[in-house]
Specification:
The chain is built from four helices and four strands, in the order H-E-H-E-H-E-H-E. The protein has 141 residues and is of the alpha+beta class. The protein is globular and about 50 Å long. The mean pLDDT is 80.
Length: 141
């Protein structure tokens, strides 16, 4: 049974090498919450493009096990971020909040499709990869 509608990637998405290269250039940490064995296949493919992906297990339906797994991932992220900051690595440029109203005439309209997904009711529905309810909205922003 094939779960992925686009096993070779969606035609409009950037390639995995482009995507993961951009993530590494920005020092983005990737923590992956695996809910079943299909996730391990995806991680194998992702691992060809980015070596340092942290996997944590979300396959349990036990709230205690899930909390422990998510907490471990968060602690790892904080630890890595702290170590990176202490190493003197490059920092992102400061952001400045502009409170003025934008010049709307200079902002281009973009056609888009927005997919809204109704969240599964419980962990078992997530792990079973149950079909979620989806609504597609087409328009422009």
């Amino acid at each position: 049974k094939q779960i992925d509608d686009f096993p070779d990637g969606h035609p409009r998405d950037p390639s995995l090498s482009t995507l993961f290269s951009a993530m590494q250039q920005r020092n983005i940490q990737y923590h992956f919450g695996a809910v079943n064995e299909y996730c391990d296949r995806m991680l194998t493919v992702f691992g060809r493009h980015m070596q340092d992906i942290s996997r944590f297990d979300l396959s349990s339906s036990s709230p205690g096990v899930l909390a422990k797994s998510v907490s471990a991932a968060v602690m790892e992220s904080v630890s890595r971020s702290s170590a990176y900051a202490a190493s003197g690595g490059p920092r992102p440029p400061p952001c400045r909040l502009v409170k003025d109203e934008p010049n709307w005439d200079r902002i281009h309209e973009i056609d888009c499709t927005v997919l809204s997904v109704v969240l599964p009711e419980n962990v078992a529905a997530i792990c079973s990869m149950a079909q979620t309810q989806q609504k597609v909205h087409r328009g422009s922003i």
